[in-house]
Design brief:
Layout: H1 2-15, H2 22-39, H3 48-64, E1 67-68, H4 69-75, H5 77-86, H6 88-91, E2 97-98, H7 104-127, H8 133-157, H9 183-208, H10 216-222, H11 229-247, H12 251-271, H13 275-296, H14 298-306, H15 309-327, H16 338-341, H17 360-392, H18 397-416, H19 426-440, H20 445-457
Antiparallel strand pairs: 1-2
């Protein structure tokens, strides 16, 4: 029941246009709160991870606390200069106290979004404490990802300027794909779903593939057995998701998917003991990549990557942003205030009003400064260490592969965020938090002790010639 509730929230978020509109994000937040109240148990990793989370939240709260304007001038001269230019009352001394954030309302909104994501992770960890819960959740995400991928491909072929054929976005839909206004955000969401799908596929192959001593004829006959059905269905699902991702022509998304699949390829070569399974999985990954690229057109992709117009625009935007990062290097401008800051920040291209830096690392440096960036780096390091411990913990191969898929998705998203801001989209952030929970959750107590017996129970009967 809990897995179904989590799946429903993820599905609502993605199909409600990424939950970027208030009418979609508020029900999503309410559902997250309800599931947390119902299922949250004290299973979230304590120690360094918990302290890092507290430090991150405390840093944002510190940006919101009203302090004397004299302290604002001393701690953040750039913020005082901005407020003097932006507010007549502040410039004339009528404001005695102000937060370090240049726009407290936006920072408060950003803090709410951050807390929502933080609450979602331990909630999912609690849900995943049940046996086989990670497999069920990964399967559900793969099903939703396949449906969203089919919708994206169908809409691309019959695009009428509206999302899902009926919704007109607030600004434009020329860059839309599937239910997302921005094709790069579709690619980010699909990247995470694809990673979980590949992890689940590898887990299923490890669980039900023929024994290592089977010959090639027996392996071919196995494809017609009921044990092969889940593998074939998952293979098709992964193919659909990969095709939809490449069809977006999102350079950041395709590069991130390449990094994700490379991680899974290396894991297959290192983890699988049998040479046949090892090279079968590695060959499948290579075949998927080659097939999807050939279907889309290798020359088309090469030409698209050769078009550097959008990259030049981003590089120019980053150059325009660097002075702001230097000016606000101590306390930051305030979480979620980049768009407000760029209203007065000198820019090379004045025809576009940027609301995001198209590089979440750079945007975090501007909005958070040392005050927030150091706790954020501590959180990333402690989470990484906790995930490595979870990968090394005793567990059955199926759980390990699903966990590895989540890790590959997280790493792929880290690559995409170099030139995008997908994690600022609620649907993507929610699925990312789900992947973090899958990567972190402790294996059920029986998994480590009964892994060998579980593998024997699910070992298929080899099909032999009569």
């Amino acid at each position: 029941m809990a897995i179904l509730a989590v799946t429903c929230v993820l599905t609502w978020a993605v199909l409600a246009f990424g939950a970027v509109y208030p009418w979609a994000s508020w029900p999503m937040a309410a559902a997250v709160a309800a599931i947390a109240a119902w299922r949250w148990r004290p299973k979230f990793p304590r120690g360094a991870v918990a302290w890092a989370v507290i430090l991150v939240c405390a840093a944002v709260v510190a940006q919101l606390i009203p302090v004397a304007t004299s302290f604002v001038t001393t701690a953040s001269p750039a913020a005082s200069a901005f407020l003097s230019a932006f507010s007549v009352a502040y410039a004339n001394g009528f404001v005695e106290h102000h937060a370090l954030s240049i726009d407290p309302a936006e920072t408060l909104r950003g803090l709410g979004f951050l807390v929502l994501c933080i609450v979602w992770v331990p909630t999912c960890v609690s849900v995943l404490a049940e046996a086989h819960a990670s497999r069920a959740l990964a399967r559900n995400v793969a099903v939703v990802g396949t449906i969203v991928g089919i919708i994206g491909l169908a809409q691309h072929a019959t695009f009428n300027g509206k999302l899902l054929w009926f919704w007109t976005p607030r600004f434009f839909a020329t860059n839309g794909f599937g239910p997302f206004v921005n094709r790069n955000h579709f690619a980010g969401w699909m990247l995470l779903a694809l990673a979980l799908g590949v992890g689940l596929l590898f887990a299923q192959v490890k669980r039900s593939a023929p024994r290592g001593d089977a010959n090639w004829r027996e392996r071919l006959l196995w494809l017609g057995t009921p044990a092969a059905s889940p593998v074939l269905l998952l293979s098709t699902s992964v193919l659909v998701m990969a095709c939809s991702l490449v069809w977006t022509m999102s350079r950041s998304g395709i590069a991130a998917a390449g990094a994700c699949l490379t991680i899974m390829l290396v894991a297959a070569l290192c983890r699988m003991k049998g040479s046949v399974q090892r090279w079968t999985l590695a060959g499948y990954v290579v075949l998927i990549v080659a097939g999807v690229v050939a279907w889309r057109g290798a020359d088309r992709l090469v030409d698209w990557y050769g078009n550097t117009e959008s990259l030049r625009w981003r590089l120019q935007l980053w150059q325009d942003t660097l002075p702001a990062a230097g000016a606000f290097w101590v306390t930051g401008s305030g979480l979620n205030t980049y768009g407000t800051l760029m209203m007065v920040q000198p820019r090379t291209d004045v025809t576009v009003q940027p609301r995001q830096a198209h590089n979440d690392y750079l945007q975090l440096a501007v909005e958070g400064g040392v005050l927030l960036c150091i706790p954020a780096m501590l959180l990333a390091l402690t989470l990484g260490r906790a995930i490595v411990r979870a990968l090394k913990a005793p567990q059955d191969d199926g759980s390990w592969w699903i966990r590895m898929g989540a890790v590959a998705g997280i790493c792929g998203m880290a690559v995409q965020e170099i030139s995008e801001f997908s994690l600022q989209i609620p649907a993507v952030a929610l699925l990312f938090g789900t992947c973090v929970a899958i990567a972190l959750h402790p294996a059920p107590p029986a998994s480590g002790r009964r892994a060998a017996r579980t593998e024997r129970q699910h070992e298929p009967t080899t099909v032999r010639a009569a």
